User: What shape does this take?
Amino acid sequence: MRDRRRGTAAVILLGLPGSGKGTQALRLSETLGVPTLSTGEMLRREVDAGTRLGRMVRGSLDQGVLVGDELVNEAVCARLRQPDCARGFVLDGYPRTVAQAQFLDKCLKNLGFWPPRVLWLEVSAEEITARLLNRLECSACGRTYRATEDGQARVCEVDGAALRHRADDNPDVIRERLRQYQLNTAPLLEHYPASRLRRVSGTGTAEDVARRLREAAGNRSLTVPVQAATSGLSCAASQ
Ligand code: AP5
Ligand code: MG
Assistant: This one.
């Protein structure tokens, strides 16, 4: 087995749509020095590029329903095999179903990772809707902004690209995304053992939330040992 576990920083960031996963994943990635893997961003890029996958998932994204597990599972597992993930990663928006979580458990075990710390961002449903209706995103890198609080910002402060509203940030689709979350994602609270799960308040300033997440992702908590993998299966072969 490859020993990629020592000193790795593997984090799963979960929470309601609009709880700040994307905002905080980037910050946590910088702090930990590991890449962010966002399935929502990945799927939106495919839609924008008009690829076959993009055409397949566009309807689901527009309606706020989850795309099929198999479409995201293999893509995430393939990404986790890349060398830049060897020291860890921050997963944003994956897993989203119990079946995805089970697949990820196997994938990480086969790749020799420690079980990740799971950080659950908690924000009230009322605040969520206000945030999503007020969100702008960079059309190039996906970084998020607030239409009012971030003042005059109309281009991304990082790459200068135009900001836009996301197609799924409208009241009907937000309602469906919240429903999908309760139906498919909330059960993950039972999937992960309490020893790996931290609930973190997602309210207050983004800096406050980032500080809480850094504390909750403390290095010691990221190195809980896992039994050595005995299976020779690759992720792709392990469903
Ligand atoms: P995805 O892109 O993951 O959407 P989501 O889960 O609905 O989450 P959001 O991106 O809307 O919110 P966020 O938590 O990232 O919040 P953000 O940081 O932007 O998925 C989109 C779609 O793709 C899904 O509906 C599904 O179809 C598909 N999909 C994705 N993953 C899938 C999977 N694993 N399986 C199947 N299908 C999948 O913040 C929101 C706003 O709040 C921003 O304006 C931000 O500036 C602001 N904000 C952030 N922090 C604060 C704060 N502390 N105070 C005030 N405002 C704040
Ligand atoms: Mg996001």
Summary: The pocket of magnesium ion (ligand 2) is lined by residues 21-22, 40, 93 (CB under 6 Å). The CA atoms of residues 47 and 58 lie 6 Å apart. DSSP finds nine helices and eight strands in the chain.
